[in-house]
Write a structure and sequence with these properties.
8-stranded parallel β-barrel; two-stranded antiparallel ribbon; 12 helices; EC 4.1.1.23; Orotidine 5'-phosphate decarboxylase; pyrimidine biosynthesis; 276 residues; OMPdecase_type-2; TIM Barrel; alpha/beta; 16% strand
């Protein structure tokens, strides 16, 4: 990579807007597109998304599990999605939510963040709930190669609150994650490479994000119910470093690439207009 992730992300958002579109080949979506639930259907679905979207949006977010479900053939499709999306100018955030310790975390870092790996994306999602410090091998590899990470902070699933909003040493676990990410981003310009995942449907954050100096991935826009007003309430009237994420609300317009592209651009432009 020729520049740090934060700088590349800021450039991409300035040129293409802040919308991130998920590539989630859910079996029900394959059915809706008239595709078989096999590796061939997966490939047709995923590469149609790339064809329609990679030249238009700033970031695509393939969900790794839906590819892994088809074994080695599915992982081969994922490799193509990453490479072809990047070739068309989109950043790729690989949604893997890995979280482990020691040599295992280092191996995940090599798989998804090391230069030359066929699965190396521009950024990955990570889970910090074995302790933020356990993520150090991935954070260090990302910094070394100019890639980014998005660390789970406040997720929209109801089960998450019992851990994320628990209080220890006078602050919530989520706030501790935010603070640790902010420390890693300190001094970076225009933006650090350690982002957070904060669900757009959570209602309120209850954390102080003012020191983060990094991007925020906000899934839940569209089919899950969140809109521009929710983003403004959560992140303020100028959410310039927030990446609203939509998947089903765009993907339901397939399999026609032109319809997919039009749907993504409508969502992107509506969010941009609301933020002005």
């Amino acid at each position: 990579m020729t520049a740090p992730f934060g700088a590349r992300l800021a450039e991409a958002v300035a040129a293409r807007g802040s919308l991130c579109v998920g590539i989630d080949p859910h079996p029900n979506l394959l059915d809706a597109w008239g595709l078989p639930r096999d590796a061939a259907g997966l490939e047709r679905f995923a590469l149609t998304c790339v064809e329609a979207l990679a030249g238009e949006v700033s970031m695509l977010k393939p969900q790794s599990a839906f590819f892994e479900a088809y074994g080695s053939k599915g992982v081969a499709v994922l490799e193509r999605v990453i490479a072809e999306s990047q070739a068309a100018g989109a950043l790729v955030l690989l949604d893997v939510k890995r979280g482990d310790i020691g040599s295992t975390m280092a191996a995940y870092a090599q798989a998804y963040l090391a230069e030359g790996s066929p699965l190396a994306a521009d950024a990955v999602t990570l889970s910090p709930y074995l302790g933020f410090g356990s993520l150090a091998p991935a954070l260090d590899e990302a910094e070394r190669t100019g890639r980014g990470v998005f660390v789970l902070a406040l997720t929209s699933n109801p089960e998450g609150a019992s851990v994320q909003r628990a209080v220890a040493d006078g602050r919530s676990v989520a706030q501790a994650v935010v603070d640790a990410a902010a420390d890693r981003n300190s001094g970076a310009a225009p933006l650090g490479g350690v982002g957070l995942v904060v669900g757009a449907t959570i209602g309120e954050t209850g954390v102080d994000l003012s020191r983060l100096n990094g991007p925020i991935l906000a899934p839940g826009v569209g089919a899950q119910g969140a809109g521009a007003a929710d983003l403004a309430r959560l992140f303020g009237p100028d959410p310039r470093h927030v990446l609203p994420t939509s998947s089903r609300d765009v993907l339901r317009h397939g399999p026609d690439p032109a319809a997919l592209r039009s749907a993504a651009l409508r969502v992107r432009d509506a969010l941009a207009a609301a933020a002005r």
